[in-house]
Amino acid sequence: MMRWILMISLALSLSFGSPLWATERDFEPEIKVVLQVSDNDPELFKRVLTNTVNILKAYGMDEVQVEIVTYAGGVWMLTEQAGLAERIRGLRLQYVRFSACDFTLSSIERTQGKRPKLVEGVEVVPYGLPHIIDLQGKGYVYARP
Description:
The structure is a single chain. With 145 residues, the protein is an alpha/beta fold. The chain has 5 helices and 5 strands, in the order H-E-H-E-H-E-H-E-H-E. The chain has helices at residues 2-16, 42-59, 85-92, 102-112, 128-137, and strands at residues 31-37, 64-70, 97-101, 123-125, 141-143. It is globular and about 40 Å long.
């Protein structure tokens, strides 16, 4: 199904000259929500993704901005190995942003010798919790499922 959506998007973008799979928009919606994930718990993360879909349905994709910020164990949910990459990519097509804490990623690299490979398009922020605080200062509503 996702393959068909991407193929149709590509065909339409070639017709109209702009990519329909853009993950950034040129305006800021009035409603902004930041969701925190700090646990390496796939079931919890699936609920976060479902909550995100529900927020998009309730307010409309063009009326809300959702950002999911991960730190500590939560960064593992944004890796290819977590098995949720397709859902993450699909939500990115709906302008959902995903952020991972660089401090956590660097700590993992120091202790395990290898930095986790994140799903393409995940933004790396210096620190997860301060990023959430900054977003709240910009009018984001905070939620921790």
